[in-house]
Amino acid sequence: MKRNQRYESRLEKRKQNRFLNIAIGLVVLLIVVVAFNLFSGDDDETASTNKSNSEQTTENNESNNGSIEMETDDSKSKADDEDSESKDKEKAAEEKEKTDEEGTEEEKTESGAPEGGGPEGPWQPIGTTQTEPHTKTYDDGSQDWNEMVQALSYATSIPQDQMTIFWLGNGGGPDLSKGTVQSKADGKKYDVMLQWVPEKGWQPTSVTPVQ
Predict the structure, then answer these.
(1) DSSP tag of 130
(2) Residue 168: helix, strand or coil by DSSP?
(3) Is the predicted pLDDT of residue 148 greater than 90, yes or no?
(4) 26-47 residues labelled b (16+ CB within 10 A) or e (exposed)
């Protein structure tokens, strides 16, 4: 009888131990599953966050690159416009200078005399087509005569077709001449001294009104 009780008691203890072991195993398994889910969820969230941050960074970089590229294009366009405007101004200035020079040359050609002139001066050599050595001559109609008449007109501002020549001859030296002329328009009369300048022609040196 006592043996049966002991056997049953041992059997009961074994059942209890087995139940406890199963319960403990289930608890441990449950803990493992919960822990796995927690860590797995954190990893996914971290990966999602990292991905979102990476995408945001990429978008920001693209936006910044676009802004930089746009600013670069605007700067280049502005520089090109300024360069084009500068070239246009230079070209306009060159054309104006060229036009002014042409106008001066035309005025000089039309008047047939250099700048200055008139009774008040200043006077410049009138130019010549004669070669050196120069030989002074007072033959009416000769090249030297014609150039002296041109110099008298330049010195007095009297057009040649409105000028009466009273006298034109030696001025006291091999390269000097003197003329006395009068304007047909207003009757003004002048004594004019001329000097020959080699390769440049006759140059008035003085204009004196005659009463």
Answers:
(1) P
(2) strand
(3) yes
(4) eeeeeeeeeeeeeeeeeeeeee
Q: Cβ(169)–Cβ(138) under 8 Å?
A: yes
In what side-by-side order are the strands of the sheet with 163-170?
Answer: 163-170, 176-183, 189-197, 201-210
Amino acid identity for residue 189 in this structure: K
Q: How many CB atoms lie within 10 A of CB 50?
A: 10
Tokens of 60: 């920001």
- The tokens describing 53, both together, are 């941050």
Helix segments in the chain, DSSP class H: 2-111, 143-156
Cβ neighbours of residue 168 under 8 Å, at least 6 residues apart? 138, 145, 148, 149, 152, 177, 178, 179, 180
Query: How far, in Å, CA of 211 to CA of 199, rounded?
Result: 35
End-to-end CA distance of the chain: 184
Express each pLDDT in 106-115 by its tens digit.
444 344 557 8
- Who contacts 200 (Cβ-Cβ below 8 Å, separation ≥6)? 125, 127, 128
The pLDDT value recorded for residue 107 is 46
Give the three-class secondary structure for 199: coil
Q: Residue 39 is encoded by which pair of tokens?
A: 């860590």
